[in-house]
Amino acid sequence: AKGTGGGTFRFYSREMNRRASKRLQVEVDLHRALREQEFFLLYQPQVDAVSGRVSGIEALTRWRHPSLGTVPPDQFIPLAEETGLILPMGEWTLRQACLQTRRWQEQGFNDLRLGVNLSPIQFKRSNVPAMVRKVLAETGFDPHDLELEITEGVLLQKDKGRSECLRELKNMGVSLAIDDFGTGYSSLSYLKHFPIDRIKVAQEFVREIPASIEHLEIIRAIVAMARSLKLNIIAEGVETREQLELITEMGIEDIQGFYFSRPLPGEDVLPFVRRSASR
Ligand code: C2E
Ligand code: CA
Ligand code: CA
């Protein structure tokens, strides 16, 4: 009996050690990544389905790991959030995206809008308006061309300064979008307490159509309520012609999804924007 128990214990503790040291390794790696500029951005076009033109781009972070290759954000953002590294990382992302997009604007696409994701941890642990103001000043980026994407969780955090914080961003001229709308616990009517400009219909819903009538109805309801609250709306995760048709029939004209484009490396963005403008 003694042998079995001890063995099990040793097994678990070895497993736990392994996990802890792997986590520690990734954390060490993340610090280095920030120092050595191993992060880079891809940009996914947002297309007006009626005119075919690119109206904006969303910056999406990637990690070029020296031995693992390109690591997607789901595999490092959670740890960056746990360790607080999301704060310098998030600031780097915003600065980088603003600098890059400004260059594209200077090359003739001066109304190109930039979307950047913010983590709830940034709101919890730092002064987001101060950080954004600093980066805008440093980069000379026009706040009216910036859309910050926040999750429903940010609205639900019990922080009495939260709506003032969002108001402060609005007063700077920045737009606010709710990312993955419908997957959290907030309701549309709840949104009217916050200065939100646009909602992004979660790709979890779009993915289910046309097969699921239920999801079709959910999107229809979101559109109707967004309209009554005078919020703009964009659908994410549109992959097929059929999804595009259903979505636009419901009155959503802004589309982000593989149907039009995957997230693109920087050098492919202007060619894509040019092609869409000349159609
Ligand atoms: P998100 O903000 O919802 O970003 C959209 C994700 O959906 C991207 O994945 C994009 O590649 C993917 N996507 C776009 N269109 C389609 C489609 O038609 N079909 C499918 N199957 N997928 C599509 P990605 O780049 O892996 O990003 C995943 C998540 O990581 C993002 O979800 C966002 O929450 C987070 N993230 C990415 N970059 C950053 C960042 O710089 N800061 C923070 N805080 N989060 C980030
Ligand atoms: Ca997003
Ligand atoms: Ca999203």
Automatic annotation (TrEMBL):
Residues 23-277 form the EAL domain. This is EAL domain-containing protein. It comes from Trichloromonas acetexigens.
